[in-house]
Amino acid sequence: MFTITGACTLLAVSVLFFILGYLLWKGGHALNWDFFTKLPVPVGETGGGFANAILGSAKLLILASLIGIPIGFLGGVYLAEFGGATTAFAVRYTTDLLNGVPSIVMGIFAYRMVVVQMGHFSTLAGGIALGVMMVPIAVRSTEEFLRSVPNTLREGALALGATKWRAVATVVVPAALPGITTGILLALARVAGETAPLLFTAFGNMFWSPGWNQPTASLPDTIFKFAISPYEEWHQQAWAAGLVLLTLVLATNIGARLMLRRRYF
Amino acid sequence: MKRVLLILTLALLCISCVDSDTSRTNAAAPQAGQVLINGAGATFPTPIYSKWFSEYHRKFSNIQINYQSIGSGGGIRQMIEGTVDFGATDGPMTDEQLQQAKTKILHFPTVLGAVVPAYNIAGVTQDINFTPEALAGIFLGKITKWSDPELKKANPGINLPDQNIVVIHRSDGSGTTYVWVDYLSKVSPEWKSKVGVNTSVNWPVGLGGKGNEGVAGLVKQTPNSIGYVELIYAVQNKMGYGKVRNPVGAMIKADLASVTAAAASMKNMPADFRVSITNAAGKDAYPISSFTWLLIPSKIQDAAKKKALTEFLQWMLTDGQNMVEALSYARLPKEVVAMEQKTIAGIQ
Amino acid sequence: MRSSSTIVAQAGAPRRARTFRQRLFHGDQIAHAVTFIFAASIILITALLFYELYSGAGLTRQKFGWSFLMGRIWDPVALEFGALPFIYGTLVTSAVALIIGVPLGVGAAIFLAELAPIGVSSGLAFIIELLAAVPSVIYGLLAIFTLVPFLRDDVTPVLQSTLGFLPFFQGVSYGVSLLAGGSILAIMILPFIISISREVLLAVPQDQREASLALGATRWETTWNVVVPYAKAGIIGSIFLALARALGETMAVTMVIGNDPKINLSLLGPGYSIAAAIANEFTEATSDMHISALIELGFVLFCITIVVNAVARLLILTTTRRAKA
Q1: How confident is residue C323, by pLDDT bands cut at 50, 70 and 90?
Q2: Do B310 and B239 meet the contact criterion of CB atoms below 8 Å apart?
Q3: How confident is the model at residue A49 (pLDDT cuts 50, 70, 90)?
Q4: Tell me, what's the pLDDT at B244?
Q5: What distance in Å separates the CA atoms of residue B94 and residue B246, rounded to the nearest whole number?
Q6: Would an 8 Å CB–CB cutoff place B193 in contact with chain C?
Q7: Residue B326 and residue B133: Cα distance in Å, rounded?
Q8: Which H or E run contains C291?
Q9: With contact defined as beta carbons under 8 Å apart, do A220 and A103 qualify?
Q10: For residue B227, what are the β-bridge partners?
Q11: DSSP string, C140-167
C-alpha cells in the first residue's frame, strides 16, 4: 500500500518538474539581464524586460500580506482559542464561502468598492483584492494547526500562571508555527499567480508605477497579455516570466522558513 | 525575531528605493511636466497601439500613455464610467451607450484590420474559396461536412475530405466576433434573425477558444476544424486561411491591399465615423474588414492631458500611419485622415 | 488555636470584584476582543460581497426569477439567459477534480508524512507547494499544449474501450472537454490537499502510532486505521479548501473546457463553467442586462458554495459525533 502512496507523490512531484521544465524550455532563452531591469518594449524590438511587472507584483503582494496575514492569522487564533460555538461556526462558514468566490468576482467586487469610489485604477485596489483572497486560506490553516497543538501544552502554560493570551502567544502559536507558515505561504503563493482580480483593479501598466495610487503592471497580468498575443517573442517572454514568478515564490518560501526555523527549532 | 524584522525592513527599504527611483526615471523633465494617461479597450490593435505609445514616449519622454487591452466592451464601459482617459473599440458604440456617458464621446478610426477564416484540413494546403452561403451555413451548423456541395462547388480543384467540420469560435466577448457576425448578418438573413450581432452571441455550434490565440491554438490542434481570427494571428501562426467572395463576385484573400480597398470603396463616411465596412462592394475589397476606433472625450478638463491627446492624434494620423503596415495593419484612406484632422480641432 | 475567622482576617479581606475598566483592559479580554474584530471583519466582507452580488443581479432577477436557474439558453443578443449548463459544468468539473485529486493528494500526503524521512519529506512538500504558485494562465496554456492532446489521443481511446458502456465516456472527443477541465483542476488543487494533509498527519502525536504498533498492528494498518482517522478533520478541511478553489477557478478551466454552454452527459464533450463564463464575457459585456446576468451567475455560484459547505458541515458533524459515541 505504501508503494501506491509513493507513486502518488511521484506523480505530484513530477507534474511540477514537468511544468518547470516546460517553462525553461520555452522561455529560458528570453531570460537575460534586460529581462529584470528593462521595461517592456513593443513587438519587433529587442531588449525589453519585465522589470515593472516584477516590482508591481512585489508591491501588490506586500499590500496583500498587510491585509491577508493579520486578518487571517488573528481570525484563526480567534476560531481556535477564543471563539464561542456559534460565532466560531459563523466565521468558519463564511470563510469557506469566501474561499469559493471566483477570482474574477473578487476583482469585480474590489472594482466596485475601490476603483469606482476612487475614480481610477490603482495598486491599492489590486492589493485589496488579493489580500481578501488570501484571508480564507490563512484563517483555515492557522486554525487547523492551532487545534492540532495538544491541550497538554495549553494546560501546562496555564498551570504555570500564564494568562490565556500569554499562553496562546508564547506557547501555542510557536508550537503551531511551521504549519501556520505553510498556510500563509500557500495563500501568498496562490494570490501571486492570480490574474483575473487584477484586470479591473491594478489594470496594468507599460511603464513604472511609483506610489500606490496608479495602475501597475504585475507578473501574472503581463504574462496573460503577452501569452494571448500573436507574437512568438512575447510568448517566450511570457514563459520566462512564469519561470521568474515561480522562482520568486520559491525564494520567498525558502527565506521565510529559514528565518522561522532557526528561531523555533 | 529581531533578525526576521531586520530582514523584512531591509527588503521593504529596497523595494521603496526602487519604487521612488522609478518615479525619477519616469520623467526626464521635472515631475510637474509629467503627463500620465490611461486607456483601455480592444485587443485587436494592441500591437500597433503599444508600438505607437512607446514611440511617442520616446519622442516626448514626459508623456506616458498606458494602454491596456481588456476588450472593446471593457473599453466602452470604462469610458462610460470615466475611470480611463480614452478607450478603444473594434465595434462602434451604440446610441444608448453614447447616451450613458457623462460627456460626449468621439470616435477616431486608427487602423484597418481583417478577420479571416482559418482552417486545418488534413491534406489541403491550397487556399479554400468560401462563398458567403458556405460560411453562414458552416457557422449555423447546417453545413456539417467539408465535402458539402456548397464547398465543393467553389473549390473544384481541391480534394475536400468527407469529414465533419469542427467549428471553433470565440468564447470571450470580442470585437473580432463583432466584425465576423456583422458580416454574417449582412450576407445571411437566417443568421441575422437567429443569432444576431454582438460581441458575444449564442453560437449554434462549435467549441469556444479564449482569445484570438485560443482559437488559433484550437484550430491548429484540431483536425478538420475552421475558426475565425484576426489576420495577424493567422499570419504569425502560419495558418492556412481562405478567400472570401465579395459582393462583386471576386474571391479575395485578406491582405493589406484588399483591406484598404474595402475602406476606400466606402461611399460616405459619416461625420461621427461610426460605420461598418463589412461586405464592402469594391472590386478588390476583402469583405470582412473593419475599422478600429479610439474613443476620446469631446471635453477634457485637464489641459496637459488634452494637449497630449490631441497632439498624439495628429501624430497618429501622420507619422503613426507609416508604422502600421509593418505589423500587418492597413492604413487609413486619405479622405478619412483629412476628416479626422478636422474633428480633432473640435476637442475642447 | 486561632479561629478560622482570624486566619481569614489575617489573610486579608476578599478582593473586590474587578471594575469594568479593569476587565476591559485585562490582557485576555483585549486579546479576545482584538481577535474577534478581525474574525468579524471576515463576516463583514462576505456579507458585503453577498449584498453586492445580489443587488448587481437585480435586473435579471426581476426578469427571470427562478427560471434563470433552469434555463438552458444563453443568448446575449436576444437577452435570454439561463444558468443550467454552467451550473452543470461547474459541478461536474469540480466532482471530477475531487475524484482524481483527493486519492492522489491524500495518498501523497500519507507517503510524505509517514514513510519518507523528514528531510526528503520537507523538500518534496516544498516543491509541491510551488504548484500553488503557478499562475492559472500558465496552467491553461500548458494544458492546451500538453494535456488536451494527451487526453484526446491517448486517454480517450483507452477510456472508451474499457468503460465505453457508461454514458460518461461516449461520443466524439476533441480534447477540450469536461474531463480536461476536471483534470487540470485536479492538478491545481493537489498542493492544497497535500501540504495541509501532510502537516496535519505529522501533528498526530507519536504515542498514537506507538500504541497501535504495540498492539501488533502493521505499519500500514497503523497509518490507515489510527493516524489518518485521527487527522480526519484536518484532511477534510483541506479537501474543502481544495473544492472551493475548484469551484471558483477561472482561467485554466476556460482554456480547456470547450466553452460550449450545453449539457453533455459525456465527460468527453465540451462544457462550460460559471467562473469561465464570467471571465469570458464580463470584460466585453456592455448591456446592463448582460452584466446583470453575469453577476447573477456569480451569485448563483456563491449560493452553490453555501449549499455545498452546509452539506459538508453536516457530514462532518454526523461522522465526528458518531466517532465520539
Answers
A1: very low
A2: no
A3: confident
A4: 93
A5: 26
A6: no
A7: 33
A8: helix C288-324
A9: no
A10: B118, B168
A11: HHHIIIIIHHIIIIIIHHHHHHHHTTSG
Closest C-alpha to B154, from B184, B133, B139 = B133
Mutate to test the interface with A, among C18, C26, C37, C49 (most CBs of A within 10 A): C49
Give the HSE-up count for residue B143: Cα atoms under 13 Å, Cβ half-sphere: 21
User: Could you tell me how many helices (H) and strands (E) chain B has, helices first?
Assistant: 13, 12
Residue at B242: amino acid letter:
G
Rounded distance, CA B184 to CA B190, Å?
9
Please report, as a single letter, which amino acid is at residue C50.
F
Kindly determine whether residue B199 and residue C283, on different chains, have CB atoms separated by under 8 Å: no
User: Rounded to an integer, what distance in angstroms lies between the CA atom of residue B198 and that of residue C255?
Assistant: 22
Residues of C in contact with B171 (CB under 8 A): 254, 259, 276, 280
**The C-alpha cell of B296 is what?**
476620446
The amino acid sitting at A217 is A
- Residue of A105, A147, A221 for testing the chain C interface, max C β-carbons within 10 Å: A105
SS3 (DSSP) at C13: coil
State whether C126 and A253 contact (CB < 8 Å).
yes
Residue B226's DSSP bridge partners are B119, B167
For B17, other C-beta atoms within 10 Å of its C-beta total: 10
Chain A CB contacts of C40 below 8 Å: 91
C-alpha to C-alpha distance for A160 and A80, rounded to whole angstroms: 21
For the sheet with B251-252, list strands across it. B129-130, B243-245, B251-252
Supply the DSSP string of B123-183, one letter for each residue: T--SPPEE-HHHHHHHHHTS--BTT-HHHHHH-TTS---S-B-EEEEESS--HHHHHHHHH
Alpha carbon of residue B190 to chain centroid:
26
The answer to whether the CB of B272 falls within 8 A of the CB of B293 is no
Could you give the CA distance from residue A206 to residue C146 in angstroms, rounded to a whole number?
31
Q: Tell me, what's the pLDDT at B131?
A: 93
For residue C34, give every residue at least 6 positions away whose Cβ sits within 8 Å of its Cβ, in sequence order, or none. Answer: A74
How many Å lie between the alpha carbon of A119 and the closest alpha carbon of chain B? Answer: 5
pLDDT per residue as tens digits for the range C295-315: 899 889 888 888 887 877 777
State whether A144 and C129 contact (CB < 8 Å): no
Amino acid at A41: V
Contact list, B196 vs chain C (CB under 8 Å): 77-78
Q: Locate C228 and state its grid cell.
A: 489518518
Q: β-pairing, B35-41 with B63-68?
A: parallel
CA quadruple C19, C25, C31, C32: dihedral sign = positive
C266 φ/ψ sector (left φ>0, alpha ψ -120 to 50, else beta):
beta
For residue C320, how many other CB atoms are within 10 A of its CB?
Answer: 13
Nine-digit cell string for B188 = 445571411
| Residues, chain B | 348
CA distance B150 to B63: 54
- Whole-number pLDDT of residue B107: 92
Task: ipTM value, please give it.
Answer: 0.83
Q: State how far the Cα of A206 lies from the Cα of A56, in Å rounded to an integer.
A: 11
Closest Cα to residue B162, out of B170, B175, B152, B154?
B152
C101, C67, C96: which is closest to C81 by C-alpha?
Answer: C67
- Residue B85 to residue A95: CA distance in whole angstroms: 38
Residue type, A129: A
Compute CA C16 distance to the chain's CA centroid, rounded to the nearest angstrom: 51
Q: Do β-strands B35-41 and B86-89 pair in parallel, antiparallel, or remain unpaired? A: parallel
The pTM of the full predicted model, rounded to 2 decimals, is: 0.82
Neighbours of chain A (3+ CB pairs under 8 A): B, C
CB C184 within 8 A of CB C253: yes
Q: Rounded distance, CA B189 to CA B194, Å?
A: 8
Average pLDDT over chain A, rounded to whole? 85
